[in-house]
Amino acid sequence: EAQVTQNPRYLITVTGKKLTVTCSQNMNHEYMSWYRQDPGLGLRQIYYSMNVEVTDKGDVPEGYKVSRKEKRNFPLILESPSPNQTSLYFCASSLDGRKTNQPQHFGDGTRLSIL
Amino acid sequence: DQQVKQNSPSLSVQEGRISILNCDYTNSMFDYFLWYKKYPAEGPTFLISISSIKDKNEDGRFTVFLNKSAKHLSLHIVPSQPGDSAVYFCAAYGTASKLTFGTGTRLQVTL
Fold first, then answer.
1. pLDDT-based confidence at residue A100 (cuts at 50, 70, 90)
2. Residue A56 contacts B where some CB pair is shorter than 8 Å
3. Does residue B7 sit at the A interface (CB-CB below 8 Å)?
4. B19-25 and B72-77 as β-strands: parallel, antiparallel, unpaired?
5. Which of B1, B90, B97 should we substitute to test contact with A (largest number of A Cβ atoms within 10 Å)?
6. What is the tens place of the pLDDT at every residue in A62-71?
């Protein structure tokens, strides 16, 4: 089954404790992306990657890091989480990320609470 | 600065009637638009898209209309069904491979 898998689905942690949210896709997609969803703000893009070893900032990259060492994986790293990073996070992938009829497929989300 | 706006946070429609969800954008560089549907505890799923060279795209019960001069697009669902109850996001691509989303509209289809 074609899917985007995020782990963990839920996490409660404390300020300053480094954490990583993993994202994996099994569709051989080149493009992967991270979003956060906050009430009244919709989904905002954090980082995206056009291919292995190629990453770019989205609209809200501050406080986050990403890496793309393999095509299938795109982890989101919070080196020193703060309460304003409490949010619902989504990973997505698509064939090539360009404006084609190949839409992005989303994972089911990771709810992070940072105390 | 919200470049993609969905001014109606919620909409309630009777089953069988038409649902019309609206979206406005400000960035004239946007040239490809999509609608996503999201159920609770799931990620968004793609519904329908439209290129800026078209003004209408239809897929079954779903039709998207684009008015470039007004920087406005709308999603029509006819007839509406209870299973359509979800949050709908419009989204747009600009010059880069960045996807900008609106704030979402919660649609409730009542019996």
1. low
2. yes
3. no
4. antiparallel
5. B97
6. 999 999 999 9
